[in-house]
C-alpha cells in the first residue's frame, strides 16, 4: 500500500508543485483524493494507472482541486475504459460534474456515479470487505470535507487451537477464518470465536483537504486509530494571520491536530507558491517540534510506503 503525491501545491501551481492530488494504491486499486489540473500527466511519471482508479474523493470545489477531472475522464474514455467510476464530494459536485462532462466533444461511454455529501458530522461513505472511507466536515471558505481511509483486517486463525479441538487441515479451517461454524465427524460444532484471534490493526490514513485546524478532526482520527495524517500547511507559522483570513492552516496548526490524533506520521502538503524557492522555514519550524512523530514535507512524486513506513521520490522514465 502506497501514497503517491501527484500534486502538493496550493492555489497557484509552480515549477516544483502541481495542483492538489494524492493517490492511494491498495491491492491493485487506486483511490484518488482531489484531482487538480495536470493530475493525469503527473500520473504518467508514477506507477499510478488511471484505469485502476475506482473512486475519486473531492475535498471541495475550488479549481485547484477539481480541474483535472474533465481531462482525466476523457483520457480514460480514449483508453477504452468501460468500468464505472465513483466521485464523492460536497453539495455542488453533481452540478460541477454536469459541466465537466460537457467540456468539448468526447465519447465517455462508462458510467460516472456522483455522490454528494451533506453532513454536519462524520459519515461513512464507503464500506466494503477491504476498507471503509469516512467523510468529515471541515471549515474552509466553501463547503469542504476531510477523508479518512481505514483498512479492514479479518480475524486471525489460531491453527494450533483449531487442531487441538479436532479441526482437520483443509476447507474447515478456511470456513472458520471466514466466520462460518464447522461440524466435525463426531458431531461437535466448532464456532469461529473459539479459534479466532483479534485481527491485526489495519492501515488508516486521514486527509484534511483545505481547512482551518479542527480539534474534533484530530479526535476522530485518534478514535479510528489512524497512523498517518496528510494535513494541509499552506503557510509557515509567521503567516498565521494569512492562514486565518484564507481559512487555511500553518505548520504549527497541522502539528497540533496530528498530536491530538496521536498519529505516527504527519505529512504536510498544499504548500503555498511563495515557498517554491526556499522551504527552509518549514524545515526550521519542524525542528522546533520536540515529539516523537515523524513530520514530512510532501513533494510532487513522493511515494510513502504505508507498510514499510518509508518515503522516497520516484519518477518513472
> Strands of the largest sheet, in order across it?
6-5-4-3-2-1-18-19
At CATH's second level, what is the architecture of the largest domain? 4-Layer Sandwich
Give the CATH class of the largest domain. Alpha Beta
Counting H and I runs of at least 4 residues, what is the number of helices? 10
Task: Work out the oligomeric state of the chains in this entry.
Answer: single chain
C-alpha Rg (nearest Å): 22 Å
The sequence of SSEs as H and E is EEEHEHHEHEEEEEHHEEEEHEHHEHEEE
* CATH H-level superfamily of the largest domain: Ribonuclease Z/Hydroxyacylglutathione hydrolase-like
Report the sheet-strand fraction: 25-35%
Total beta strand runs: 19
Shape: globular
Q: Stretches where pLDDT falls below 50 for ≥5 residues?
A: none
Cα separation of the termini: 22 Å
The average pLDDT score comes to 95
Helix content: 10-25%
Write down the CATH topology of the largest domain: Metallo-beta-lactamase, Chain A
Strand pairing plus helix content: what structural class? Answer: alpha/beta
Major β-sheet profile: 8 strands, mixed
Protein architecture, described:
The strands form four sheets. This protein has an eight-stranded mixed beta sheet. A seven-stranded mixed beta sheet has the order 7-8-9-14-15-16-17, with helices on one face. The chain is an alpha/beta fold and 317 residues long. The chain has ten helices and 19 strands. It starts with a strand and ends with a strand. 24% of the residues lie in helices and 28% in strands. The radius of gyration is 22 Å and the shape is globular. Helix 4 (93-100) links the parallel strand 5 and strand 6 (112-117). It has two domains: 2-153 and 200-313, Ribonuclease Z/Hydroxyacylglutathione hydrolase-like (Metallo-beta-lactamase, Chain A); 158-194, no CATH class.
Amino acid at each position: 500500500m502506497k501514497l503517491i503525491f501527484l500534486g502538493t501545491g496550493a492555489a497557484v501551481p509552480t515549477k516544483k508543485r502541481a495542483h492538489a492530488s494524492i493517490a492511494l494504491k491498495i491491492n491493485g486499486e487506486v483511490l484518488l483524493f482531489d484531482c487538480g489540473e495536470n493530475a493525469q500527466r503527473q500520473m504518467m511519471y508514477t506507477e499510478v494507472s488511471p484505469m485502476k482508479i475506482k473512486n475519486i474523493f473531492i475535498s471541495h470545489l475550488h479549481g485547484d482541486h477539481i480541474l483535472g477531472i474533465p481531462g482525466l475522464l476523457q483520457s480514460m474514455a480514449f483508453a477504452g475504459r468501460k468500468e464505472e467510476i465513483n466521485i464523492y464530494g460536497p453539495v455542488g459536485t453533481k452540478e460541477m460534474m454536469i459541466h465537466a462532462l460537457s467540456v468539448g466533444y468526447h465519447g465517455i461511454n462508462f458510467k460516472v456515479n456522483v455522490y454528494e455529501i451533506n453532513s454536519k458530522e462524520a459519515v461513512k461513505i464507503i464500506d466494503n470487505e477491504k476498507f471503509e472511507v469516512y467523510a468529515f466536515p471541515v471549515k474552509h471558505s466553501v463547503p469542504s470535507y476531510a477523508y479518512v481511509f481505514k483498512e479492514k483486517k479479518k480475524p486471525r486463525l489460531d491453527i494450533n487451537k483449531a487442531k487441538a479441538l479436532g479441526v482437520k487441515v483443509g476447507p474447515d479451517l478456511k470456513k472458520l477464518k471466514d466466520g462460518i461454524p464447522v461440524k466435525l465427524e463426531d458431531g461437535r460444532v466448532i464456532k469461529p470465536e473459539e479459534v479466532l484471534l483479534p485481527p491485526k490493526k489495519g492501515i488508516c490514513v486521514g486527509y484534511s483537504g483545505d481547512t482551518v485546524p479542527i480539534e474534533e478532526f484530530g479526535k476522530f482520527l485518534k478514535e479510528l486509530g489512524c497512523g498517518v495524517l496528510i494535513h494541509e500547511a499552506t503557510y509557515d507559522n509567521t503567516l498565521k494571520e494569512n492562514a486565518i483570513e484564507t481559512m487555511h492552516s500553518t505548520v504549527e496548526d497541522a502539528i497540533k491536530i496530528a498530536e491530538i490524533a496521536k498519529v505516527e506520521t504527519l505529512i504536510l502538503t498544499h504548500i503555498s507558491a511563495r515557498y517554491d524557492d526556499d522551504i527552509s522555514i518549514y524545515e526550521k519550524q519542524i525542528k522546533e517540534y520536540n515529539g516523537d512523530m515523524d513530520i514530512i514535507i510532501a513533494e510532487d512524486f513522493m511515494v510513502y510506503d504505508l507498510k514499510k513506513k518509508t518515503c522516497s521520490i520516484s519518477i518513472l522514465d
